[in-house]
Amino acid sequence: MRKYVIMGVQGSGKGTQGQLLARELDLVHISVGDIFRWNVRNHTKMGAQVKRIMAAGELVGDDLVESVVRHRLQQHDWNYGFVIDGFPRNGAQAEFFMESYDLDAVIHLELPDQEVRRRVLSRRLCPSCGMDYNLIADRPEQEGRCDICGHELVTRADDTPEALEARLRDYHEKTRPVLELFQRKEVVHDVDARPPVDEVQAAIRKTLALPPYIPALPA
Ligand code: AMP
After folding, report:
1. Residue 184 and residue 94: Cα distance in Å, rounded?
2. Using one digit for the tens of pLDDT, what is the confidence trace for 115-140?
3. Is the peptide bond before 88 cis (omega within 30 degrees of 0)?
4. Residue 102 has what pLDDT?
5. Which amino acids are annotated catalytic?
6. Distance, first Cα to last Cα, the chain
7. What pLDDT is stored for residue 218 in this prediction?
């Protein structure tokens, strides 16, 4: 059983790296941000509650976040463990989490703010199949269209300069202290998030003493 948390500022690749790690180790990948986005897209009551907060780049209230995480982990579909990304994001969430679950490792993806701004503002998303693109490093073949399903690409509602600055501020003020708390427990593995995806994944595997990562060959 492996229980990992993946932390890093927005745009550091938490989602991508978390999914890659989960896929090969048969872990369940849990992204609190994805759960909220799903609710917004599907116009649920919870979606209505979080839509404005997310679009402004602010943090959703701890009670709601904790109930989402608790509910997700209570499904117990994670026989081999889980990778949770985007949580905990402040001291209260970290305490809630540590009371209920012991952790094997925290993967901390490090990325300078300047690079965060460059990446996030060029990020595009397919609202239909969820595929991520980046206009700098990972352009779609046809401009503005998803390579997989052909749907028109959109910008995430919270990838605006104003929302990004709010999230960066929150990250430094509220999320950094969480990292320090985990560092005291000696479970944090710092990984440089600047290299290409495969290299970052290989570095994660190495620092966690997992079998080496063999990237898929291009088709
Ligand atoms: P992410 O995809 O992790 O960047 O999350 C997108 C948005 O969802 C954040 O900007 C917050 O508004 C909300 N969110 C996700 N995770 C949390 C969390 N642990 N605590 C509070 N808000 C969160």
Report:
1. 13
2. 999 988 998 999 888 888 988 878 99
3. yes
4. 87
5. 14, 89, 123, 156, 167
6. 33
7. 66
Structure tokens at 100: 């209920």
Q: Which two tokens stand for residue 28?
A: 């369940």
Distance CA 73, CA 107 (A): 19
Q: Which atom of ligand 1 lies at the shortest distance from residue 54's CA?
A: 12
- Average of per-residue pLDDT values in the chain: 92
Kindly report the number of other CB atoms within 10 A of residue 126's CB atom: 20
Q: Which atom of ligand 1 is nearest to the CA of 93?
A: 19
For ligand 1, residues with CB inside 6 Å are: 10, 32-33, 36, 53-54, 57-60, 65, 86-87, 89, 93, 158, 167
Per the CB < 8 A criterion, the answer to whether 111 and 8 are in contact is yes
